Amino acid sequence: MDGPKDVAAYIGPICSEMRKLALNADLTFLAYLLEMSMLEAAKAEGQSAMETPLRSHAERKPALA
Predict the structure, then answer these.
(1) What is the dihedral of CA 15, 20, 25, 27, to 10 degrees?
(2) What's the gap between Cα 4 and its chain centre?
(3) CA neighbor of 65 nearest in space, from 36, 34, 24, 27
(4) CB burial class (10 A; 0-12, 13-18, 19+) of residue 19?
(5) pTM, two decimal places
(6) Which helix (H) or strand (E) holds 62?
(7) C-alpha to C-alpha distance for 53 and 64, rounded to whole angstroms
(8) Fewest C-beta in 10 Å: which of 19, 29, 34, 47?
(9) What's the rounded Cα separation, in Å, for the pair 63 and 58?
(10) 27: buried, middle or exposed (CB in 10 Å: 19+, 13-18, 0-12)?
């Protein structure tokens, strides 16, 4: 079985794709939670926050619309 870093490396990109889906559906809170999951996966994998792809300025939407 894969170790924790391998699992985190697998989960991070999946969360990124799901986050894009959530943003396209205006599910901003869900997108936020998925972004936090991406950060946690990067942390578990041993990446710094600067290495983790976060949302671009164009993707940002207000939390409360």
Answers:
(1) 50
(2) 17
(3) 27
(4) buried
(5) 0.71
(6) none
(7) 23
(8) 29
(9) 14
(10) middle
Give tens-digit pLDDT for 15-54: 999 999 999 999 999 999 999 999 999 999 987 655 555 5
Sort residue 26 into left (φ over 0), alpha (ψ -120 to 50) or beta.
left
Task: Name the band, by pLDDT with cuts 50, 70 and 90, for residue 56.
Answer: low
Phi and psi for 10 in degrees, rounded to 5? -80, -40
Per-residue burial over 36-53, b if 16 or more Cβ lie within 10 Å, else e, is ebbbebbeebebeeeebe
In the block, tokens 């946690």 appear at 40
Number of H helices, E strands in the chain: 2, 0
